[in-house]
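User: Structure tokens for this complex, please. No commentary.
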Amino acid sequence: MAEALKVPTMAEYMAEGKKPEVLFWVGCAGSFDDRAKKITKAFVKLLHEAGVDFAVLGTEESCTGDPAKRAGNEFLFQMQAATNIEVLNGYEIKKVVTACPHCFNTLKNEYPALGGNYEVMHHTQFLKTLLNEGKLKVEGGKFKGKRITFHDPCYLGRANGEYEAPRDLLRKLEVELVEMRKCKKNGLCCGAGGGQMFKEPEPGNKDVNIERTEQALETESEIIAAGCPFCNTMMTDGVKNKEKEDSVAVMDVAELIAEAEDL
Amino acid sequence: MQILAQILFVIALVAGIGFFARNIKRVIRNIKLGREIDRSDRSNERFAKMARVAMGQSKMVKRPFAGFLHIIVYVGFIIINIEVLEIIIDGIFGTHRIFSFLGGFYNVLIFSFEILAFLVLVGVIIFWTRRNISHIQRFLARELKGWPKNDANYILYFEMVLMILFLTMNAADYQLQLNGADHYASEAGIMGSFPISQYLLPWMEGLSNSTLIFIERIAWWLHILGILFFLNYLYYSKHLHIILAFPNVYLSKLNPMGELNNLESVKKEVELMMDPNADPFAAPAEGEEDEEPEKFGASDIFDLNQVQLLNAYTCTECGRCTSECPANQTGKKLSPRKIMMDTRDRVEEVGEIINKNGKFEDDGKKLLDDYILREELWACTTCNACVEACPVGIDPLSIIVDMRRYLVMEESAAPNELAIAMTNIENNGAPWPYNQMDRLNWAQEK
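Assistant:
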């Protein structure tokens, strides 16, 4: 039943001599990871719903270099940044939105000194402005009254001080928003940052995502909301590890809104 | 006799302050072993942050109980220093309670010193029980075994003794005033107000004036000598934060926590690589032939910047960073506090070599491996919890990242899976081995 989504690329816009209002930076996880692709699609549906004039880079997009930088490979990071900035500046991009806090942080904070100056927004921030501008309507819907806890992604929260945008969206869904004992500034990492996503953890007595999942389960929420594809993977794994996948779902804020609106 | 006491006092004062100045010079010299970093920007914001975080203790109270006790000790320390000023003037000029001409206000001062001294005493005793009796995880970590644990206790004992001496001195003085003793009693009535030390009077009452004077003088001398000793103990202990917390917060990072610096040395190389007109066989420019290429990242303290070394001297080993660290909480070896302690220990070791030889001579050791283990560095999730937790603006993460940079760019020593992810990024623009040409496939998938 589902049709393929309409996802315009910058190249197509360029060919028509047009410029979109905003570039959607999909990111590697959003492009390739099966779970994260669902978040990408949910967000695209919301963009269409709100009538946002957007495009993606498609095959011209490449890793921002964040995992390389945080793993110590500054060289690779700057190579990635240089090629990405060349592409972005070539298209005269002014505004970027992304559903990945790692891409968000890197594009927003680390690209300017290398010649890439854009207004960068996390998708929860962007959705909030759409809501405020009345372009997107969000009302209770199927999540009304459900107990939901939000896991702060380190690179959205502590790293960039954004704690409220995702929570505001959840409140719009009229859910029962409950906080974990470690939240906002004191939020515990899911365990994926700094390149950890791509390697086995060092020896210890527990995995970080298990610790964080336990904190989330303590809240007895039906849904763990996330705002980062990596957190999503880590928390989903944690919930499976605790054999709670039948009663607790891990969902991105964009997915919750899209689903509430039956998109 | 009196003049001899004054001379001895001045000698002790000059020696105490002189030795302290020498140690502070060493700290500054050692910090300058690091690379220069420009934090001269945004001074208004920096002052505001210093006022809020260092003076205002805003981050201390995130843990309300310890934070409250710390504020008592902090305020006590600052206020009681007014009393130390009086002691110094009295000591130099042979006067007694020189500030007593302030009359009613003097009574208020002494009253508040006594209350604070008592509160500090109580606070310090609670601190001691927290460190030695309560099983508080962050005080039991492996990096606190041995000297760091003793050091923390010595500081607490010191403060206890100083406060007890201060109250004893006041009690003896009060009794002498009540007895109408020469030099102590004043026609104007009782000088000072003794809300706490009055309770020590039962022990003083039966004593002769000469014994009381002896007690008062001994307490007075031990108190001021103790303070001078403590001042000089700072350099050898973790306690330098009482001074360095202020410049450390002032110089701390103001940019978003998530922002890592872009290495300038790499920037040049990348620009050259991306420049289609660059001549790969070009000879180095005039005058640059002998320049050694800049080292990437940090393997020793010389590669860290001066703010990072100041961070290390400022750390008072409270362990809030470590207790918030996700890696540490899940049993990994990484402890951000240990990163700071190791950095300081290594700076001190290098400093000692310079003290001995006049300059640094390679001792075959470095910060990496001899102090900080690779296993610790690779356990970090770069989540910034440690940076957020530090009450004085220390950034352990920046040291971890700089050392990772050394491991990856100088030694190609990334853990294998990370090396694979990096190769993928290099080859196909994603940490996983997917073709960049498939990047938009999701849009067609149903």
